[in-house]
Structure formats: structure tokens, C-alpha cells
Amino acid sequence: MSEEDFLSDDFEAPKKKRGLPKWLLGCGCGCTIMIIAACVLMIVAFQKMTDPEAQWPALRESLYFEERPTELELAMGMSIPFSGQKQYTLIHKGKDFTANFYVFGGGAEREALFMTEGKGLEKMAVPDNATLGETLVQGKTVRSMTDTGLSMLPDGLVGPGIRIDISDEDRFRVIELRVLEGRKPMTPEQIDAFFSMFDVWHE
After folding, report:
1. I need a surface site. Which of 35, 87, 92, 170 has the fewest CB within 10 A?
2. Domain residue spans in the chain?
3. Beta bridge partners of 9
4. What is the CA angle 201-134-65, rounded to 5?
């Protein structure tokens, strides 16, 4: 082939191959936007969960109080959509104990917290040396369960605890009080002092 033939107008350069089809690029951009949006929603949700100004009023709807307890910090509050389940974590400012307050949509979920033994995966959720008993809460004797710790958590993280069933006819509620590792179990006087910050049986 001569140089003139090579440079003629009829000569067509080979078409460049595209690296990725347009539909795939569009899908990739769409997925990226969705991931970013999901991350933003997660950040916003976490900020709300850890915002005391948002969580104290929500807690008050399920565990009534006149004024915010000054001895407690509300570390986190969360709810599971469509289930009616809620959980709030309170920390004593003196770091003497933590309190987890559970609200359930039904009695079956509540009963899982009062198992003294279990099989398979259930066993992991059962506290060490769990013993059922009773506790007096603002004039009512209610079911409770004491334990010596939670082996499912790393050693040295938590110590003895007590779960107290403060449910009534239409509310399924449980308080779990737990001291730090190495400390003695909470006394009845300490438990009374905790509940004195709330009006447990307020309708």
C-alpha cells in the first residue's frame, strides 16, 4: 500500500473500544449515591441516639420523672421500628453502676431476659449464676433476677447485676442495674435510691 492510499479520505481509523458500558457507569454512580445517603442517615441516626436532648423526653414517655435525674447520664437511646422495642442506657455519674431500661412490644421478648438457663445460642444470653427472686419497687413486689456477671462479655468489663420486671397490664418494661467489675452487688438501699429518681407506676 502506497503512502497516498494510506492517507486517502476513504481511510477510517479503527474505533476505540469503550472501557465500560454506559449502563454500568450509571449503575455504579447510583449505587455510590445510595451508599453515601445510607452513611449520612446512619450518622444522623447515631447522633440522635446519643443526643440527651432528644432521648430524655423519649425516656420520660416510658419511665416517668418530674425532673431529669442529675445523678445520671443518658448515654444512648434507640428503638427498633415496627416492633415497639426500645432501649436506653443510663450511666451513674459516679461510675458506680449502669442501668439499661428495656421496653418490649410483647411479653415473649421480656421473658428472654429472665432465663436462668438456655441451650445453644440462648445460653450466651443467660447471665452467670442467674437466680430468680423478688424486689420491692415503690410499694409493689415484682419479679427480679440476680447474677454474678456476664461471661459473654470480656473479663473485667462488668460485675454483678439485677434485672427487675416493672411491667404492668399494658407495658412490658425491665430495668437492668449492673455494677462495675470487682464491686459488690447493689444493695436494696442503692436500688431504692435509683428508683427514687423516677415515678415507676405513673400512668
Report:
1. 170
2. 54-195
3. none
4. 25
Nearest to 140 by CA among 62, 192, 98: 192
CA dihedral (111, 113, 117, 118) positive or negative: positive
Instruction: Kindly provide the b/e burial profile for residues 145-160, where b requires at least 16 CB atoms within 10 angstroms of the residue's own CB.
Output: bbbebbeeeeeeebbb
The residue behind cell 437492668 is 176
Per-residue model confidence as pLDDT tens digits over 83-131: 779 999 999 988 789 999 999 988 888 998 898 887 655 666 688 899 9
pTM of this structure: 0.74
The pLDDT value recorded for residue 40 is 44
Coil, strand, or helix at residue 137? strand
Instruction: Please identify which residue in the block is written with the cell numbers 451508599.
Output: 35
Q: Residue 77 in contact with residue 55, Cβ under 8 Å?
A: yes
- Domain 54-195 matching CATH 3.40.1000: the answer reads yes
Residue type, 86: K
Tens-digit pLDDT profile for residues 35-94: 444 444 454 455 566 688 999 999 999 999 999 999 999 999 988 877 779 999 999 988
Q: Which residue has the cell 415515678?
A: 199
